[in-house]
Amino acid sequence: MLAKRIIPCLDIKDGQTVKGINFLALRSVGDPVELGRRYAEEGADELVYLDISATLEGRKTFAELVGRIAANLNIPFTVGGGISTLEDAAPLLRAGADKVSVNSAAVRNPALIGDLASKYGSQFVVVAIDAKRIDGRWTVTTHGGKRPTERELFSWAKEAQERGAGEILFTSMDHDGTKNGYACDTLARLSETLSIPVIASGGAGSMEHIAEAFTAGKADAALAASIFHYGEIRIGDLKRYLRERNIAVRI
Question: Which end of the chain is more exposed for a tag (fewer CB within 10 A), N or C?
Answer without folding.
Answer: N
